[in-house]
Design a protein that fits this description.
With 72 residues, this protein is an all-alpha fold. It is built from four helices and no strands. It has a single domain, classed as Winged helix-like DNA-binding domain superfamily/Winged helix DNA-binding domain (Arc Repressor Mutant, subunit A, Orthogonal Bundle). Helix 1 crosses helix 3, helix 2 packs across helix 3 and helix 3 crosses helix 4.
C-alpha cells in the first residue's frame, strides 16, 4: 500500500491522496465521493499528477509514486 509521504516530484497532499485511491481501484466518482469533491476536480488532480510524474495512465502514476517513495 502507498505510504502517505510526499514523493520528491512535488505532488500535493491531495494529489497523493487521489493516486492512493486510484491504486485501490476507485473510479473518479468514487474518489470524488470519498474526498468530498467533484469528479471534475478529481480529473484536474489526476491531470496535474500525470503531468508532474510524466505518465499517461493510472497504472504508470501508481508505479511512479511507489518507485519514488521507495527511493526516498
Amino acid at each position: 500500500m502507498l505510504q502517505p509521504t510526499l514523493p520528491s516530484c512535488h505532488l500535493t497532499a491531495r494529489e497523493l491522496e487521489v493516486v492512493k485511491l486510484l491504486a485501490t481501484g476507485c473510479t473518479y466518482s468514487q474518489i470524488a465521493e470519498r474526498l468530498g469533491i467533484s469528479a471534475h476536480t478529481v480529473g484536474s488532480h489526476i491531470k496535474n499528477t500525470y503531468r508532474k510524474l510524466q505518465v499517461r495512465s493510472a497504472a504508470a502514476a501508481v508505479f511512479r509514486v511507489l518507485s519514488i517513495g521507495s527511493m526516498s
